[in-house]
Amino acid sequence: MKRVILSFLVAFISYTSSFAQFTEDKPKVVVGIIVDQMKYDYISRYWDNFGEGGFKKLVNDGYFVRNGQYNYAPTVTGPGHASVYSGTTPAYHSIVNNNFYDREKGKGVYCVDDKRYTTVGSDSKNGQKSPYRLATTNLSDEIKWASNFRSKVYAVSIKDRSAVLPAGHAGDGAYWLDEKNGNWITSSFYMKELPQWLTDLNEAKKRPIDKYMKSDWTLSLPIEKYGASTEDSTAYESLFPGKSEPTFPYSIKKGVASDRVRAKTGRKYDIIKGTPYGNTLVTEMAMHIIDNEDYGQDNFTDLLAVSYSSTDYAGHAYGPQSIEVEDMYIKLDKEVETLINHLDEKLGGGNYVIFLTADHAGAQNAGFMRDRMNFEAVNISSKEDTQAIETVLNARFGEGKYVASHYSGQLYLDRELIKEKKLDLEEVQLATAEAFMAMPQYAAAIIGKDLERGEYTLGYKGLIYNGFNPRFSPDVYGVLKSHNMDYGKGGTTHFSPYKYDTHVPIMFYGWNINHGETHAPHTITEIAPTVCSFLNMNYPSGCYSNPIIIPMKK
């Protein structure tokens, strides 16, 4: 009996020691930070107004990839988060857009909607989400598997898709903000009930979010310090609820009282997303996760995915030329500093690694381009363009509604109608492409059949090819000319394969990473394999990119 017990103890010590050696020379925690709609040049443009402990610390003490690029289109949030963490493009992971047309269902779908699950943390339907459409594993999944499910993996964002897609299929939890009641919620895909610490946070009498809802968004610095931006009020900005001009300060309390749309739909707390307090809430939640889930306290590397999305709301509302966007980044710089300081306090410097990038960049406002850059740019309407295309197809193939879905050049044909009329799909695709090219706002049109047969590697054709998934992607891609956009007159958007939407920062900081930088071209799909190489583990299943060669301390 003693011999049996002794053998068991030897085997157990050997087993646990092997894991201790397995995690030796690895960071205790990986923190992935994605900043929504962060253009590469924001680092240099706003540099003088940043403190020393945020973005400057990442640049001065970490490794900065200055030529970071998205290698597919369209450039939007869902595919961006899926691609960074899976190390591959929509062609493989299948998240082709935030919203896209599902031919099997015959309707438009949202990339993380899943009615098989229920909301946890609220009585709303905002938690009916899952990553089931993500067709490959991602970094989070591989970390869980490499540790035999001992690593902790959580994700947090005010947007559901920005939490669900990074958390992957095996994550312990993904949390996002419920715009109905201001709670942090999740899906029953992850858990049956919230942990007690989060329930206490949601049910506290004095929640931070309620304080922020009564606050003002004021400038961080004297207005003359905002030299990287235009004057405070321009025609290129949208209006905050209750405001007659896009000028500081912004009263969130007055905005809530004036916002009839959000009041009618029961989305009161949605207003906080477009202010810097949305990012503050994410930082606070990230620190709660670190503290309450005991991050970095064992031999298995944990992962925390943090997505700052208020930058995207500000970009859409005010545009990259605005003081509002500059101030948003000045305040985000402080959030990054706060998170770094918390990691230093809890884990110790050098025991964690951070990577920071964006899910896409953003275009300049079309009106700004016309008025101040003397550049021909227009705001288009997908609805009007669809009508023009339908007219052409009806004249050629007979009466019918041929367009099943269309947004910003991504056009899905009604394939059932084409079958009923015994038409050739490729012929209809080609006629649609010709209709696109008859409109002066488009630079090119590419049909799905060509993307299925050929292989494109250069220019926007290469990016569209990398984003093309035969099952879920459009029948025809109409490529708008540079700075033309399907958007209103105020603010901006992102979607295109042009550099203003694809060029993003990529940074690595902490652990054994030496200071340095590179101007060599690298893509965001190289981030996941780089982190996997730090951890000596498998790459995600659809990852065909190589890691970035980063100088290490040992």
Automatic annotation (TrEMBL):
It comes from the Bacteria. Keywords: Metal-binding, Phosphoprotein, Signal. Residues 1-20 form the signal peptide. The keyword DNA-binding does not apply. Gene3D superfamilies: 3.30.1360.150, Alkaline Phosphatase, subunit A. InterPro entries: Alkaline_phosphatase_core_sf, Alkaline_phosphatase_prok, Phosphodiest/P_Trfase. NCBIfam families: alk_phos_PafA. This is Alkaline phosphatase family protein.
